[in-house]
Structures are given as C-alpha cells and as structure tokens.
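pasting input
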Amino acid sequence: MAQMQLVKCTVNGEYRETMVDVRASLTDMLRNDYSLTSVKKGCEVGECGACTVLVDGEAFNSCIYLAVWADGKNIRTLESLMGADGAISDIQQAFIDETAVQCGFCIPGFIVTTAEILETGKEYTRDELRKLLSGHLCRCTGYENILNAVEKVMKQRLGKA
Amino acid sequence: MYDLKALYEANSVQNAIELLSAHPEAKIIAGGSDVLVQMREGRLAGKELVSIFKLDELRGVSMDGDGTLRILPLTSFSHITRDPLIQAHINVLGEAVDMVGGPQIRNIGTIGGNTCNGVTSADSAATLHAYDAIMEITGPAGVRRVPIREFYISAGKVVLSHEELLTAILISKESYEGYKGHYIKYAMRNAMDIATLTCSVNVKLSADKKTIEDARIAYGVAGPVPMRTPSAEAAAKGKPVSAETIEAFGEAAKLDVNPRTSWRATKDFRLHLVGELAKRALKEAIKLNGGEA
Ligand SMILES: Cc1cc2nc3c(=O)[nH]c(=O)nc-3n(C[C@H](O)[C@H](O)[C@H](O)COP(=O)(O)OP(=O)(O)OC[C@H]3O[C@@H](n4cnc5c(N)ncnc54)[C@H](O)[C@@H]3O)c2cc1C
Ligand code: FES
Ligand code: FES
C-alpha cells in the first residue's frame, strides 16, 4: 500500500492541496498533480538544474526534494512569471533577444534561478553571475548568450540599460 | 518516485530518536542531497527514512553566553555563508561552504549532513577540524559532546549510534578569537565538483604581526578521514612570519598525511598539493591577520 500524505502549499500564488505519495519528488508533484511541465526532469540527481523551482524565494532542485516537504511552503515555477494577459516576463524577453534559447530544455531552470538572482535587487559582476548560474547545465552549451541575457535583464531592472 | 520503503517525519528531536529506535533499519534524512541521490543510484534503494528536515528548531547560528558559536545542523550552506556571526568570527567557514556544488545544492545541503556523512572531501570538514569544533550529539541517553577529531572513524563512518542525532556544532571562543583563516579547495572545475584535496589554515599573530603565535591546519582527502597535521603546526608555532617558516610548514605537513591514488588524482599529485596548498593558505591567512609574508 502506498503511503499517502496531504500536502497543502501555495503554488504560483494559489493555495492548493492534494494527497501525495511520500515517495514522490517535488518534481513529480508539480508535473503530475499540477501539470507544471516547465519543471524538467534532466538528471534527477541534483546535477543539471533543469528542475529548479523557488521554495520560499530560494532556488532548489525539485528532483532532490521530497514532495511532502512542500507542505506549508510557497512554491513558484516558471509559469508564475506569466503576466495576467498571458504575456511573457522581461527575463524571457531578454533570453529571446540574446538568442539564449536553443533546444530550450534547460531554459525554465535558468529563468527560475534568474528570478531568484534579480529578486535580491543587487548588481552583480559577470563573474558573480557565472557563479550564481553554475548550478545549471545547458546541453546545447549556449552559456555565453544565457549570461548575456541575464546581465541584460539585471541592468534593465536596475535602470542601467 | 524514489525507491523509498517508508518515510517517518519527525516533529521534534525526541520524536526523531523514538522513530529511529522503533525502526532499526531507517536512515536519517536532513536536506537529502546525499541520501536521495544514493537512493536513486540504488545504494539506499528500498530503505526507510526518518526525516528531520521539518525541524526548524535545528536551523540557524547563535552565540552561547560564554561566546561559543552554536551552529545548528540543519543550517544550509547558503545560510551559513550569509550569517553575520559566521562572517564576524569564522568567515573562512562561510567561504568554504560557498564552494559546495552549485547554488541550488547550497540551498538544500546542510552542514550536519556534510559532517555526518563522514566524507573526507566534504567542504566544511577541514575548516571545522582546523577550529577544533565540538560535535553535540543527542540520543536516548541524553546529550554528549565529542571533539571533531574523534568524530570520524573511517571513510563514511562517524561515531553516531543508530539512535543518535547531531544537534549542534560548537566553536569555542578560545578557538576563534584572534584567529583568521583561509580555505583552498583544489578541484578540476570551479563549480559542481568534488575536491581533489582541501586545506584550511588559520593563524593568530603576535601584536607586532612578526611572530606566528598559533597556527592550525587541516585537510580533506589527505587520508580516509579529514585530519590535522601536527608536524606542520609545530613548524609554524612561535616562529617568525617569514618565507622560511611558510616553506617549513608546507614540507612538515607532508609527514603526517596519507593520501591515496584515485581516479581523480594520484597519491604523488595529492602529496604535492598537500605541501603547496599549505603554503598558499598559510600565506593568505597571515595576510588576513595583517601580517606580511
Ligand atoms: C550535485 C551535487 C553536488 C555536490 N557537491 C558537493 C561539494 O562540492 N562539496 C561537498 O562537500 N558536498 C557536495 N555534495 C554533497 C552534499 O550536498 C553535502 O554532503 C551535504 O552537506 C549533505 O547534506 P544534506 O543535509 O543534504 O544530507 P543528507 O543527504 O540528508 O544526509 C547526509 C548523511 O548525514 C546523515 N545526517 C544528516 N543530518 C544528520 C544529523 N543531524 N544527525 C545525524 N545524521 C545526520 C544522514 O543520515 C546521511 O547519512 C554535492 C551533492 C550533490 C547532489
Ligand atoms: S533534474 Fe534536478 S538537477 Fe537535474
Ligand atoms: S538550450 Fe538546449 S539544453 Fe540549454
């Protein structure tokens, strides 16, 4: 018999609750119970960052996070960046403008981490941004353009672009 | 889905001890960045877990009345690095754990997990050894304190019994006051890599900054468990701040270590690093203390 547990949390601004198998990862819950398929399964061992989500404002690899631990937390995925009218965010626009997207598989993760970075309101050097983005692998190896996009949107938000 | 037999979520330290007593096969999970990965790899497949992740009373850094720094085991690496008490008194620890994996790993990984896993390459291990950390352990019989040098038994094995939890890491005032240190992680990549060798050095200088009053050094991956090198410490203690002292320090360190050849590096290369990193870290630590070498 599967061991089930009630998990109540806020997902992308909405209060939600569901019964979850204790063996599920947070990735499993977000994809299967809430159809948030921006949360990708890359390595499932914490190496690639494709599954990154924000838990109470901090970036976590949802593949190595038990779904039941989400109880009482505020979870945000890429989908939370969507505007009321369905518009994309300035982060996504910068990724498009800088041709940062190739196959796209790693991009939701990168964008979620970018959201975490920008929420600090700080200005970072390129080297600091490299370090802040180092928990993500891009199998298309488009790192330079991704870095350009993150730097661009950081400067825009700080009114320096 | 993880291949997990059962999960027991503890609601207090006492409850965690009871759950561990009731389930002799269960393993503790804190942040899970070792345990869940090993469950996927198969090494821990089919195991029962006692989760302590929700015990917020085990998070944070504080100072006891006598000036002892109290680092609670569930404190994540990123929180340690940002903590004002850590920055003021043992900044090198915050710098060391800022080299773990990548940002997301530093948000989930805990310092308790980083020591209780018994891993010699763990990024907090050398610095905690070099500051004579005291491990506070809670079990069915109450609380006991073990110096970190007696905490590690062999690769992957620490002194904790099945029902015991690490409940604090203590750094006494005598251990940090007047000392500043530097940590070097030698790895193939700047991020997401496990260390080939780690080295943490801290020193206390005389008032005129000309003499090394005390020097402490510890390594990871220089042997099956993290270790201090007493010969190096003896070669620097009471000696003038000079290039000769630094040279002697690095050479003496090699006498006490026991590195091995692995796929990451040969024994000879590690031995070379033992000397080189000791010198570089000592030089930097002297600088941080206002000395010139
Ligand atoms: C992609 C990736 C990269 C990594 N890179 C690094 C790196 O660069 N440097 C590094 O040092 N580590 C690295 N790690 C390893 C890991 O993140 C750390 O060892 C981390 O500190 C483990 O902490 P945790 O809370 O996640 O541990 P868990 O997996 O929850 O536990 C680890 C072990 O400690 C035991 N344990 C945990 N807390 C307690 C407690 N309070 N009392 C008793 N026993 C306890 C558990 O039973 C288990 O055996 C990496 C891991 C991943 C997945
Ligand atoms: S899928 Fe989570 S880090 Fe790769
Ligand atoms: S764009 Fe293809 S993995 Fe990054």
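fyi Residues A 41-44, 46-51, 61, 63 surround FE2/S2 (inorganic) cluster (ligand 2) (CB under 6 Å).
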